[in-house]
Specification:
With 169 residues, this protein is an all-alpha fold. The chain has helices spanning 2-51, 56-65, 69-95, 100-109, 113-122, 131-156. 12% of the residues are buried. The mean pLDDT is 84. The chain crosses the membrane at residues 135-155.
Amino acid sequence: MRGLFYIVFFSIGAVVGAQFPGFTSQYEQRLDGAINELRTIILRFDQDAAEQNLSRQDALETYNRAGDEFLVKQGLSMREVFIRYDKLTAHQQALQNANAFEQAAGFVQYFDPELAEATWAQYDISVPLNAEGGAFGAIGGALAWLTAAFGWGVARLPFRRRNRLKFSD
């Protein structure tokens, strides 16, 4: 029974782990698209500011000085656009020219829930038959097997026989 339990967990973990290379590939495509869109917004903002002889920072300060709450909120939104652009470009740089395991570390370090959710909504599950898919499948299977072994051990604790020491008189 325990062996079957471990095999099932290993198999599920392997299939889940093997998804990582394909998922990150699609995630990178979405990342590129998001960066391009933010770049377009930033370039328009900078052009509009330059037409008014303002630097980016001066233009943002103009929003802050506006007496209108809507304009102040627009300034805050633009600041968030700049921050998001910087974060996503750092993420993109971490993923580019990296091997599969460095990509995994970069993916975790710069994880963007919004992009991941959008990617997952469009993702088609598959099991890649290449070295990367095999490596991540093996890692996922091993982690699932260890989780199953730990869970099995914890679940058995209440049912273990305890050897009691007898002391003679």
